[in-house]
């Protein structure tokens, strides 16, 4: 007799469930950009989605409580001159989000608690360095205010957002960078490039420590660092079959596992939960979410299940673990964007009968406090992320101190002001406070709105008057026509009606 031993795992029975439509977000004009981005970013306070916007680029930010149908005129974050390609929430401040756009600029925004009440057009800081569109933004996992951006100019730039200046520029990629990922403590950087190679880079020095061809296909490849140092990639074979692989950093060119999934042409985004070692594969245009467990035993990547929906997905966002509901044994939550404008909320749950806190499902997870400052990190220090317990649940704190940007002094700023003949510097500077400028801008906005309102009212009144005149003219047209004809006849023919016009009088004639 032979016995089939079933693998023991607490996640074998994880199941996905979509919330009801009234608990989701509807009527969202999701971006139609062909850029390979998730178009969605989530944290315990807000949901951000890149949307279609006339005259530039924008994204919408919604508090989690604002479910249901979203008004068409809902305020946006819209300061970019080109379509927004990627967005990312700061892991250490739930009110700060970064966005990259086709206008080559990266902007960092502060979202007030409760969401927006009017369109936000003024960022905290503009980060200008790239020469072509910026398609990737990524925050450092442990260092505060450190942001990585990558553009179509093949450059990777690491910024100190608090100073508003670039710390490091990496020029080691010969083509467009598709994805980037820091390892657990942020000391290494993993990138994928259009030249089919994945690279492990020292982000401070720019030195390439390892590189290898990941997948033979020409379509976009994605790669992530797992918590214990392994590398997980998704891509395409030469025959355009979708693949995933597991590799060690010491032998990038020799995958431990290489599995072919299907022949779809949508790029697969690997979303990773470091607490449970689960990887969720979400393909663009797919109607399924596949999930796998990574273990030290062969075959290392264990297929668990597939969550199936009837609609294809355009983008997807994953909630950080601190935003999940621990009372219902929810281990992951996804926000899935459909082409119909619905943002569907999907929960992944481990079935347990007990309502007590399950310590084995919820080990200490990533908190919202940075372990290092930007200066400490750039000087060479590394630190593990600071972890928090979810035993009593997680309550998002009130808005932290607004991110302040202190740019370094410029020698040109210290030059004395120029003065005219007989004038003094103080009279010519006439400084105006920022508060006053904001008040002026608000007044101008109100005046513009009033003008538009009056113009619409004037147009409506003119239309009503024209309709009334037209009706009166139609009613009086027969009488007016006969009177007009008789008058013309009398003018031309005179009382006799001979049809001849009177000749003009000469000088002296009466």
Task: Lay out the secondary structure.
Blueprint: E1 15-18, E2 25-26, E3 40-42, E4 46-51, E5 57-63, E6 68-69, E7 77-80, E8 84-89, E9 96-101, E10 105-110, E11 125-128, E12 134-139, E13 146-151, E14 156-160, E15 165-170, E16 177-182, E17 189-193, E18 197-201, E19 208-213, E20 222-225, E21 231-236, E22 242-247, E23 257-260, E24 268-273, E25 278-283, E26 288-294, E27 301-308, E28 313-318, E29 330-338, E30 343-349, E31 365-366, H1 374-378, E32 387-388, H2 425-429, H3 434-475, H4 477-493
Parallel strand pairs: 2-6
Antiparallel strand pairs: 1-30, 3-4, 4-5, 5-7, 8-9, 9-10, 10-11, 12-13, 13-14, 14-15, 16-17, 17-18, 18-19, 20-21, 21-22, 22-23, 24-25, 25-26, 26-27, 28-29, 29-30, 31-32
């Amino acid at each position: 007799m032979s016995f089939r031993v079933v693998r023991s795992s607490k996640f074998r029975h994880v199941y996905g469930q979509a919330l009801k439509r009234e608990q989701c977000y509807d009527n969202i004009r999701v971006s139609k950009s062909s850029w390979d981005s998730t178009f969605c970013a989530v944290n315990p306070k807000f949901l951000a989605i890149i949307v279609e916007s006339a005259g530039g680029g924008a994204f919408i930010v919604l508090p989690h409580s604002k479910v249901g149908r979203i008004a068409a005129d809902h305020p946006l974050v819209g300061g970019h001159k080109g379509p927004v390609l990627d967005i990312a929430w700061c892991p250490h401040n739930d009110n700060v989000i970064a966005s990259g756009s086709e206008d080559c600029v990266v902007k960092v925004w502060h979202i007030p608690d409760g969401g927006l009440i009017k369109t936000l057009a003024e960022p905290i800081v503009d980060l200008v360095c790239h020469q072509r569109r910026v398609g990737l933004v990524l925050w450092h996992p442990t260092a505060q205010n450190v942001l990585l951006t990558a553009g179509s100019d093949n450059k990777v730039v690491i910024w100190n957002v608090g100073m508003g200046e670039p710390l490091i520029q990496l020029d080691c990629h010969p083509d467009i960078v598709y994805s980037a990922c820091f390892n657990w403590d942020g000391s290494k950087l993993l990138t994928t490039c259009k030249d089919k190679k994945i690279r492990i880079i020292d982000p401070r020095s720019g030195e390439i420590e390892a590189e290898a061809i990941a997948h033979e296909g020409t379509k976009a490849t994605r790669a992530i660092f797992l918590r214990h140092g392994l590398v997980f990639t998704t891509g395409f074979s030469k025959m355009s079959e979708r693949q995933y692989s597991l590799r060690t950093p010491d032998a990038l060119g020799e995958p431990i596992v290489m599995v072919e999934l299907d022949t779809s042409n949508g790029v697969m985004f690997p979303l990773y939960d470091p607490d449970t070692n689960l990887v969720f594969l979400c393909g663009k245009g797919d109607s399924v979410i596949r999930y796998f467990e990574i273990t030290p035993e062969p075959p290392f990547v264990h297929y668990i299940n597939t969550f199936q929906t009837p609609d294809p997905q355009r983008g997807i966002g994953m909630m950080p673990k601190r935003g999940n509901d621990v009372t219902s044994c929810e281990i992951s939550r996804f926000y899935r964007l459909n082409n119909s404008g619905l943002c569907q909320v999907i929960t992944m749950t481990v079935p347990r009968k007990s309502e007590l806190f399950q310590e084995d499902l919820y080990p200490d997870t990533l908190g919202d406090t940075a372990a290092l400052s930007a200066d400490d990190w750039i000087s060479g220090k590394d630190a593990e992320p600071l972890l928090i317990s979810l035993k009593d649940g997680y309550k998002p704190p009130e808005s932290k101190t607004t991110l302040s940007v202190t740019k370094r002094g410029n020698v040109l700023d210290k030059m004395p002001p120029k003065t005219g003949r007989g004038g003094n510097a103080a009279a010519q500077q006439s400084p105006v406070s920022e508060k006053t400028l904001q008040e002026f801008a608000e007044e101008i906005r109100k005046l513009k709105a009033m003008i538009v309102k009056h113009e619409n009212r004037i147009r409506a009144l003119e239309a009503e008057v024209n309709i009334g005149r037209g009706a009166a003219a139609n009613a009086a047209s027969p009488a007016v026509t006969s009177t007009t004809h008789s008058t013309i006849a009398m003018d031309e023919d005179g009382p006799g009606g001979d049809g001849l016009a009177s000749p003009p009088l000469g000088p002296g004639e009466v």
